[in-house]
Amino acid sequence: MTRLADYFVLVGYDVDKRGSSDGQGRILQRFPEKDWEDNPFPQGIELFCQPSGWQLFTERQPPTFFVAVLTDINSERHYCACFTFWEAVEDSQPQKSLSGEDDEDSGVIQPAQMFAPKSLVLVSQLDHTEVFRNCLGLIYTVHLEGLKVPLETLIGNLLTCFIPIAGGSQMYDSTVCSFNLVPQNLACDWLLGCFQPGLDEKEESLRTITLGAGDRQVIQTPINDSLPVSGCSVALLFRQLGIINVLYLFCAALTEHKILFLSSSYQRLSDACRALLAIMFPLKYCFTYIPILPGKLLEVLCTPTPFIIGVSSFFRSETQELLDVIIADLDGGTVTIPECIHISLLPDPLLHQTQTVLSMILDPELEVADHAFPPSAMQPSSLKIQDKEIRAVFLWLFAQLFQGHRWCLHVIRIHPEPVIRFHKAAFLGQRALTEDDFLMKVLDGMAFSGFVSERGPSYRTIDLFDELIATEVERIRLEEGNPHKVMKHVKQLAEQLFKNENPYPTVAMHKVQRPTEGSHLRLHQTTFPHLDEVTVQLFIDHAAAKQKNEIPAVKSEKKCMVPSGPPPDTIIDSNVLANSARRLEVVRNCITYIFENKTVEAKKLLPAVLRALKGRAARQCLTQELNLHVQQNRAVLDDQQFDYIIRMLNCALQDCSHMDEHGIAAALLPLVTAFCRKLGAGVTQFAYSCVQDHSVWTNMQFWEAMFYSDVQNHIRALYLDGNENEKHSQEHESVPEDKSALEIASEQWRQWPMLSKDKQQELIQKEESTVFSQAIHYANRMSYLLLPLDTSKNRLLRSAGLGDFESVSNSYVTNSIAGSMAESYDTESGFEDAESSDVANSVVRFINRFVDKVCTESGVTSEHLKAVHLMIPDIVQMHIETLDAVHRESKRLPAIQKPKLLRPALLVGEELVMEGLRVYLISDGRDEATGGVMGGPPLLPAEGAIFLTTYRLIFRGTPTDPLVGEKVVIRSFPIASLTKEKKISVSVQMDQFIQEGLQLRSCTFQLMKIAFDEEVASDLAEVFKKHLHKLRYPQHVNGTFAFTVGQSFKLVVEHKHKEKNQSLKTLSKNFVKNAKRTMSRQHVTRKKYTPPTWENRSSLQSEVDEDDISVSEEVDQSSLTLSSTIKSSDRQTMSNVVERACCRDYQRLGLGTLSNSLTRSKHEPFRISTINRMYAVCRSYPGLLIVPQSIPDSTIQRISRCYRQNRFPVVCWRNSRTKAVLLRSAGLHGKGVVGFFKSPNAPTAGPSQADSTSLEQEKYLQAIINSMPSYSDAGGRNTLSGFTSAHMSSSDSSDKQRQPKIGALMKQVMGSKEELPVSVLGHRARAFSVSQHRTLVKARNLPRGKWGSIRGSGLMSSYSPDIGTRLAGKDTSSPQTNGGPSEAHFVQQQRAYLYIIGDKSQLKGTKQDPLQQWEVVPIEVFDLRHVKTSFKKLMKACIPSSTSTDPNMTYYRCLEESDWLCLIHKVLQVSVLVVGLLDSGSSVMVSLEDGWDISTQVVSLVQLLSDPYYRTMDGFRLLVEKEWLSFGHRFSHRGAQTLASQSSGFTPVFLQFLDCVHQIHLQFPMEFEFSQYYLKFLAYHYVSNRFRTFLLDSDYERIELGVMYEEKGERKSQQVYKSVWDYIDRLNKKTPIFFNYMFAPEDGEVLKPYSFISNLKVWDFYTNETLSEGPSYDWELVHGRQEQMDESDRQDTSAPKSQRKIIWPCYDNRSKVEPDAITKLFQEMQSLEMELGQVSEKWKDMWDKIKATQRTESKLESRHSLSSSLLMSSNLSHHRRSQGMYVKETRVGSSLSLSMDSESSVTATPSSGMGRGQQSTSTLYSQFQTSESENRSFEGILYKKGALLKPWKPRWFVLDKTKHQLRYYDARQDKDCKGVIDLAEVESVIQGTPTMGAPKNIDEKAFFDLKTTKRFYNFCAQDSQNAQLWMDSIQSCLSDA
Questions:
Q1: Which of 97, 478, 1322, 1394 holds its CA 20 to 30 A away from the CA of 247?
Q2: pTM of the predicted model, to two decimals?
């Protein structure tokens, strides 16, 4: 029994302090005046009566009621029911009258009527809101209505009411005051409603009270007070905020966030807070809880601890600045969550189910809203019922969250007080919820901690939640997916909750008087009277005296053992166990083999076991199996067994997170102290010394959980043994064995009160001793696993911290090098960095902390605790001494057998710098080698050695997987191609402990991740890195392999070797000397340039750098004078220069020879200038340059100053048809831009140097224009190079269809977003005549141009008229033929004679002079830094260092982000534009950047596309030598080949060019003589530094170093080649590896490839790898190895050989294992010749013979459809299939379209007037287009009469017996079928007669008719014999059918 009300308080407005800014309240009276002993009076009640502040009002307010909650220092809650009404007060402060009628001047001040609040407050420990409302309302009513009942009587009776807290009491006479003892007016009337002795507790809970004013109230106390009472508050909260918002608040409260409710109603704030606490049951809120916070205490909101607080919305503005508080606005229905707060929500299936069930409760009509016939009545339950249903849902939710939790409780102490701990890791692990953020936070929270301490004991009274957990879990699981069954269960729970709260819902005996409506507004109300304290106190004293005489009311508690429910293991779904039974069987078998000493079988299974151990089931299986082999806590193994067991233990522990210890590390902890091996006399090594390096051992939580688990087991054993001793005479001794620790504890708690004090003390002592002994035991265990084997090391275990530990290997040495196990402890887990020899101290500190914590919690006595602390240093020291002996003995063990190191094959002249270091090659992000997506064996990781040679870095080894151990894995790359070296830490299952690793990335797209073996000392690894760095970045280019080949490495390092080729060096010295002499005449303006002599080069300081290449910037060119003739002393030099590539190509192109340049012949428009023969004008240009004939050398010197690096415009190619020339130069200097574009007619103030230079520039460009025939033909005033109005309307109508829209192309190149300036691309009206262009028309009437396909279309290679538009993405209007301008495009606009391709950023703000005859095309050029960045990203995409699960890091995403294909697209786009301009007759000058990067790419591609010669092997070599080598691409600088250029980084400009060629090769495979392998070979060796070809930055540097002409000299060895071209020539004679069998070129073919990104393919050079032989570009190595393998295969001929070939992805070279048909034929021919003993014929001679034979046969057969070139059908048909050709009908005629891998197809329309001209490659492709060509039984020309009123027409007819068809075409070559006659429909074939319009002069018998079921056909053959032949053939087809 307890008091209904503890205090009654009267609080009023403090009139004395009304002058202050804020009003205050004060307590007027309180009853009783003295505090109760058990319940002191709460302070600060006056603040809570008016939370918004005490204020006076001008009007009387209606009475208000709310309940505030105060929490005292003991966390007890006091419910303060506040009833507030308003009373009039006299306002002494004068105020001016507000009446306007009064005299304003009178100044009369009238006192205004003010009303002050007064509060009646009840303070109670019970929460009976409605009872409090009624009682206070009754007191107010009695006062207001003036009833004749003393207020003291009401208050006295109220304060003396006693009611049961829950379930009533066992005392039936509950009357406190009797009518006999006190006067009538003080009577307290108790009525016991429906209460008789012997009724149950529900009936006891019904009480009726009266205060003596004729009132009567029924109080229903809850049956079980542990369940909260909520009334309707939960249902109201959901109505106010909605389901989602309340769930957010629920999760926020459980995960300890701050929650603030806002409302203008105080009672709603109280109800909302009460509701939130109600749905949290069975958890209790432990933090600040203030449902109504007064405004004066708002600073409480800034507290750092969590809270649930309600505040009046009056203070809304003050809450806006709270950044970490979740604000729920009850009035607005919103919940605001700040951005910085993350609320962990319920696990997903539970969240969804909870939402669904709540929705069914709150809105039952939702489910049937779409039903055609909804049920008639679907109203939601009443608020009270709905409230309980919602609470039932949350009970159901908690039952699911906490199911099985009692199985994870550890009973540490039973007596004297229970100590229980919850094993969180075990609970989450067994429930498979270790990753669930919400549950983790809940279990870590204070509420759950209180839940464990309150509900942990197993002997107590149980409530609804305990019953739910114990009996309903299985039902909940079964009903989980069925909302209706869940709903049924929820309703049952709701019914129980309602009955608990309302035991008698039908009883309603309330009789409480209320004031009349509006009574508070009466004008004259008496103030609340002063109460008589004596009278009230008399009531209280009388009741107290009566209470003393009563028998104390004792609540009967029904205690019992709390059932635990099903264990959590049964809750896990079976599909969580990923390991199949087969895998577990493998684990068991392997362990059996190990203990049976079947080593071979165990070794085979071990890799599979290690893979299986990644699954939890396999790890559990391992612990169970190993436990079976432990006998008497010890298992002695031999070395091999020990090694295998250790590897499995480490593998099982490596994925063991800190939440998974209960499963794995905990189970293995006893095993690591059991398995051991004998090392020597009295020395035993245990397994724990080899498994220390795992983070779990340094986790304090793990050790605590383990300790508590073991203590519980021992406590359980303690009481079980006691029971057994007592019951040893009985037979059922095994029964107690099944009891859990909780059950035993429950039994002990039940018996505890009945035990004697001695017995109690004995049990307490035994338990304490048990904990004490376990503390000592764990101090030993922890020292085992924390002290490293080699304790002499200063470093602590895992100093890198937990984060880095993930990447450290988990397999360790167990034999000779077992001492190098553990390095350091984890500093994050409590270890601090220590000084030397501080390992022991660190371990002692860690163990001390552990012992302090667990012993204090477990109630160990202070004496015992001190004893443990004293023992710990001795334990650690003793263990260190033991480990020293073990470490010493372990060093004496024989070394582990390791695979033999395989030495690599070396090139001639290649030498080893370091002997092989034993390493492991680790798999990277490419999973093919590990048997990933492609399948296949796991080739990596592999064990072998890394070799550093003077040329390469080579790994050679064997896979660690024994099933593929016989394979040899090779990965290598040239040292010069190394782009990045990075230290890594590796985590992979190896036999040995791995100390460190290296990741080496190469620009040949190789990646080596190596981990050094433990036998490799760290200093040796450092030496390796130093040598690698020295070789990668030599101080000078003559330190590279190409120069040092054949010399010893010492000489390479010291560079003191004797110079070779003295004659060549002398030549180069003379050459440089002449250059110096020439430059000595110049006036040096900045500094004098003195190039270092060759002798000084031995210092290896790279002085020839960027400035030296362009020394012309530093000299005053105006004073430079050179003779234009060659002196006799230079003849030797020039004879060498003439033989260079440039000169040979100039002669081929007809640009002049050296002789006519010297004689200044006027017949040629261009000449070869020798002005740069001494490299004085421009060092990066070749010695001989093509310039206009009319420009003298002196002008050239001046012009060169305007261009960057002095690279002035020179001609590099001329179109043989249009005579347009291609020029290249660098971009202009900033100072030269304005002058360059200045109009020649502009007036100048006077002659200046800048003006004269500008004029000379224009003369230079005009001279180039004058050299063009089209200019001279047009009389010198024509700016068109084609497509005038006259031309467009003249003879060749097909020409306008053939031309591309170059304007559209230009828009695309220049950026389609910007409109082109009219001055640049505008139309200029000039007059032209037809005669001026006839020569051009004739010249253009030739087939040319392939547009984006592997063949030309139709009979001619021609353009579609709108292809440029499609490329530009715009529509075009039809071509205008009247010569008018076309505004959008270039089709009919006049052309300039010269287009200058310039950088847009350099040409801003320039204006074009309309009178000039050249135009500038500004394009956007990508920066080289962009290329560099793009290449790095490309490498990371193609050779990722590790596999990524991030969806944003997939291969295609990384490839897209690299922008590599975008750069290729841009280069190709510009090149195609230039090709189009040149082909249309305009010359083009490419003037970009410094002229040696992008310019080189563009001019090279333009020549390749335009000139078929460059698509041959000789031509391509010449192109590279001319444009890349002679014109000074900076190979050394861009390739970072030396120390000086290291900082610039690798920039793959040449690789980009080769990729572009590869793209073109893919689209036009028949146009190139060389193969794709040729391009890959160059891509590999241009960075390999094996050859000297691609070293140095210019011809000047090559001459200076003496390597320019040395290739002519004697080679030291036949095998050592200094030029890559010589090597290719030799190899090409030997094998057709570089030859393209599909080579069938067309004469004069101009290629126009597609350049869209969708048309580009990733080059397989970037992605392919062959681990069997390494890169295949060092042919001798691969070929030599292949021959050895062939010989070994030939030796064993007796055994039958399988014809089956196994090709392993990423390992085998497919082209070798499965060569193409032609290569295979060559190989068979060669082997036959060898068998016959004949001299093997060269493959090229054999190929030429076959081609010649094929030509002869073609002529004999007169097959026009076949090309004169041989094309093997096997390759061709395959290619035809892969490209996907199709034929379609068009109005113009037969049109063949080619769709390349879903690319945009382009229609090509041939000229109708071409007839049967030259065969193109496209025609050849057409022959193989469809299968129809293979089924031509009979074919020929027949005349066919058309339909009605249509003439006779000749058609090519084909009779197809296979398809049973007669097809006809327009012509024989046409593949577009015009019609088909199905022979199945033919009725007869008869002789016919000529009809009207039939061909003349033909025999009548040549006519025949074909009758079908649909139509009658008339045919005419050439003669009667032919007609008979046709009739017979058709007839035979019909008869065959």
A1: 478
A2: 0.52
